[in-house]
């Protein structure tokens, strides 16, 4: 790192080498492993696992480097920061975005983006550029959208106007996608959910549901924003022939359904019930279902899930937004759907007003591994991950 300061044109090569090493170390340490390492240390009063300690020290080195290369006398300096920001953005596209199963490396970008609104906008635009390019591989487009959704949800410094801008942008893209394929929809019904062909579309829909579930309190505080949200026509999105509610993760769908119904922005219950029925074994050439009658689901990848490393958590704690809303469980949805099933069958909106608010759980300690790492995660572990925020697994995320 010090060499890059006095060897001309070596910054990019040095940072690439360092990021490759931290990514390799990060990818080999799952959330389960790190959580167990800290638990074992606390229970046995022993030393921390060497790999976890090494990752923590490596992350501290990188955070310190970013701070030193972007500040003058403890104040952010744009001119000084430009070269290192350029390098990190290139590395994101070439090294970070294509790498699966990393847990902490991406928080370097959350910290970097927190230093300046310009960097924040640039990070989001870079991911949007990747997502909106039809020539980009589908898996990278889906991953880029996951970064946008997770960033907008978790970055405490992301202003609500920015969140609203991207919700509108993503929704407009999704609606255009539907319209462009309406002529191809003849002969296909709501049972046709082809993740291979429409993966980017489904990832965009899940991003909308996820971000709104996280930020709905701020997004609905003014009449102007409510009118903007109503103009996004989410009801048309969820009732489209591509049936996004069947492919998006169940935890995301449940929480979005309950919250959006309360604001009269979308009514998902009848569609969710219909999807539950068609998930039974079916016969038909257009049904993209597995041997057990279950449709393919989007990968459960939220890049900015809670940060676990104790020594470097201070870099993240002040810029990170924990989930503070209610957790909607299956039983809650079933109880509410029983009361409104008759109205839902004829697609009559129910405002959801006057219904008793569900009580939040006071204590919960989740040892669930990060999304995308187990088969259980792939069918929706969002509720478990959000519960980590209500009572954090480690200090600093209250």
Task: Characterise the protein shown here.
By secondary structure, the chain is mostly helical. 58% of the residues lie in helices and 1% in strands. The protein contains 18 helices and two strands. Strands 1-2 form a two-stranded antiparallel ribbon. It is globular and about 60 Å long. Residues 282-294, 339-382 and 389-398 have low confidence and may be disordered.
Structure at a glance:
By secondary structure, this protein is mainly alpha-helical. Helices cover 58% and strands 1% of the residues. The longest helix is centred in the middle third of the chain and has 25 residues, at 195-219.
Question: How does the SSE layout of this entry go?
Answer:
Layout: H1 11-27, H2 31-44, H3 50-70, E1 71-72, E2 75-76, H4 78-96, H5 107-114, H6 117-132, H7 138-154, H8 160-180, H9 195-219, H10 223-231, H11 234-238, H12 244-247, H13 250-262, H14 269-278, H15 314-317, H16 330-345, H17 375-378, H18 382-390
Antiparallel strand pairs: 1-2
Helix pairs in contact: 1-4, 5-6, 6-7, 7-9, 8-9, 9-13
């Amino acid at each position: 790192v010090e060499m890059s300061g006095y060897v001309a044109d070596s910054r990019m090569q040095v940072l690439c080498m360092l990021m490759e090493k931290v990514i390799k170390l990060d990818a080999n340490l799952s959330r389960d492993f790190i959580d167990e390492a800290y638990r074992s240390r606390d229970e046995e009063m022993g030393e921390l696992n060497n790999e976890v300690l090494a990752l923590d020290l490596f992350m501290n080195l990188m955070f310190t480097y970013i701070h030193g290369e972007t500040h003058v006398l403890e104040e952010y300096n744009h001119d000084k920061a430009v070269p290192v920001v350029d390098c990190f953005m290139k590395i994101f596209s070439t090294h970070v975005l294509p790498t699966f199963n990393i847990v902490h490396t991406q928080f370097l970008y959350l910290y970097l983006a927190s230093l300046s609104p310009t960097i924040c906008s640039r990070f989001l635009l870079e991911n949007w550029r990747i997502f909106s390019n039809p020539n980009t591989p589908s898996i990278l487009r889906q991953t880029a959208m996951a970064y946008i959704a997770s960033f907008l949800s978790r970055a405490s410094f992301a202003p609500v106007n920015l969140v609203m801008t991207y919700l509108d942008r993503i929704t407009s893209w999704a609606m255009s996608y539907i319209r462009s394929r309406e002529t191809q929809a003849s002969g296909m019904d709501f049972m046709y959910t082809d993740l291979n062909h429409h993966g980017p579309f489904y990832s965009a829909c899940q991003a909308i549901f996820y971000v709104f579930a996280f930020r709905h309190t701020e997004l609905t505080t003014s009449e102007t924003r409510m009118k903007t949200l109503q103009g996004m026509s989410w009801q048309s999105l969820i009732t489209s022939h591509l049936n996004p509610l069947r492919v998006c993760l169940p935890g995301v769908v449940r929480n979005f359904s309950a919250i959006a119904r309360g604001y009269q922005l979308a009514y998902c219950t009848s569609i969710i019930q219909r999807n539950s029925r068609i998930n039974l074994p079916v016969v038909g050439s257009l049904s993209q279902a597995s041997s057990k009658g279950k449709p393919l689901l989007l990968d459960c990848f939220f890049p900015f899930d809670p940060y676990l490393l104790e020594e470097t958590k201070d870099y993240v704690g002040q810029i990170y937004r924990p989930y503070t809303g209610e957790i909607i469980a299956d039983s809650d949805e079933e109880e509410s759907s029983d009361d409104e099933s008759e109205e839902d069958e004829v697609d009559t909106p129910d405002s959801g007003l006057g219904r008793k608010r569900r009580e939040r759980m006071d204590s919960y300690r989740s040892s669930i591994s990060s999304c995308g790492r187990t088969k259980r995660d792939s069918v929706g572990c969002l509720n478990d991950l959000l519960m980590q925020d209500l009572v954090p697994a480690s200090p600093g995320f209250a």
